[in-house]
Prior knowledge:
Layout: H1 2-25, H2 36-47, E1 48-59, E2 62-66, E3 72-76, H3 77-80, E4 92-98, E5 106-112
Antiparallel strand pairs: 1-2, 1-4, 2-3, 4-5
Amino acid sequence: MGRIKTKLTILVVLLLLLAGGFMVINDIELKDVPTAIGQTLSQEKEEYTTKTYKITKIDGSDYHGTAANGTKIIFNGDKLQQDLSDIKEGDKIKAYFSKSNRIDGLLKVVKVNE
């Protein structure tokens, strides 16, 4: 039993050395390894236009908001097919718009915790 553990330990150490050598030879750093968060953020910048609003009024399923520059938005939670029950008056939201269709292209709304 002791010989098997020793062999497995040696195998794991050799695999780690091999992986490290591969990274050194190919000049790969850990920061170069893509992450799901990094990919999501870069895709978000490419596909969407975002704007932050403060919810000023909720009328049934209609939400009214105002941006810092005075721009207003009205959107319907039912039309977005998104559960917005956690959004209340006074909350800040981030609205995601399609870059190709800014006027009628609201895609989703996310509550911002600030």
